[in-house]
Design brief:
mainly alpha; Rna Polymerase Sigma Factor, Chain: A; Arc Repressor Mutant, subunit A; 2 domains; 77% helix; 0% strand; globular
Length: 191
C-alpha cells in the first residue's frame, strides 16, 4: 500500500523532473509543468492582484519567466512549488506596485478556485505541503510568524508590513529574514 507521504514525494519528484526538463527547453515538460502548477499559481496571483483579468495576465508573465529562468532552479535548495510560488508572488506584487493597487480584505479565496483543477495527487501534495508549512509557521516567534503570513498570504511588501506594525523597515526585514531561515530549517528537517 502506498502511503500519503510516498504519493507526495512521487508528485514532488514529477514536478521537479518537469521543471528540470523545462530548463532544457523541453516544451512537453513545460506543458506538463503548467498542468501541474497553473491552478495553484493562479490562486496566488488572484489573491495578490484581487482581479481575475489581472491575475490571468500576471500568470502569463509568470510562465514566461519560468520558461526563461528554469535553468536557475536548484532541486536541492527548494521544493519546486516553493520556487514557482515565489516567482508568482513576486510578479503579482510587482503588478500591484506598478498599478498602485492596495490589497483588499474581500479577495476571493484562491484555494476555492485552485482546488477545482487539481488532480487527487496534486491536492495531496498541496495538503501535505500546507500541513508542514503551517506546523513550521506555528513554531516561529509571533512577530516573525505574523510578518511572514501577512507578506506571503496577503502579498504585502516589507514597507507595508513595517507601516502596519509600526516598526522600522529594517526591523521588519530582519523579522522576515530570520523567520524564513527558521522556516526553511524546519521544512528541511521535516522532509
Amino acid at each position: 500500500m502506498v502511503t500519503d507521504s510516498e504519493e507526495a514525494k512521487a508528485a514532488r519528484q514529477r514536478l521537479t523532473e518537469a521543471l528540470v526538463a523545462t530548463a532544457a527547453e523541453d516544451r512537453s515538460a513545460f506543458r506538463r509543468l503548467y498542468r501541474l502548477t497553473s491552478a495553484k499559481l493562479f490562486g496566488i496571483c488572484l489573491r495578490i492582484c484581487g482581479e481575475r483579468q489581472a491575475a490571468e495576465d500576471v500568470l502569463q508573465d509568470v510562465y514566461l519567466i519560468i520558461w526563461r529562468r528554469a535553468g536557475g532552479y536548484e532541486p536541492g535548495r527548494a521544493s519546486p512549488i516553493s520556487w514557482l510560488a515565489t516567482i508568482a508572488r513576486n510578479r503579482a506584487i510587482d503588478w500591484r506596485r506598478a498599478k498602485g493597487v492596495r490589497p483588499t480584505s474581500n479577495i476571493v479565496d484562491a484555494n476555492d478556485i485552485a482546488s477545482g483543477d487539481m488532480s487527487a495527487i496534486d491536492r495531496l501534495l498541496a495538503e501535505e505541503d500546507d500541513r508542514k508549512l503551517h506546523l513550521c509557521l506555528d513554531s516561529l516567534d509571533d512577530p516573525q510568524r505574523q510578518a511572514i503570513r501577512t507578506a506571503f498570504f496577503d502579498g504585502l511588501t516589507y514597507a507595508e508590513l513595517a507601516q502596519r506594525q509600526n516598526v522600522p523597515l529594517g526591523t521588519m526585514k530582519s523579522w522576515v529574514r530570520r523567520g524564513l531561515i527558521r522556516l526553511k530549517d524546519c521544512l528541511d528537517d521535516d522532509s
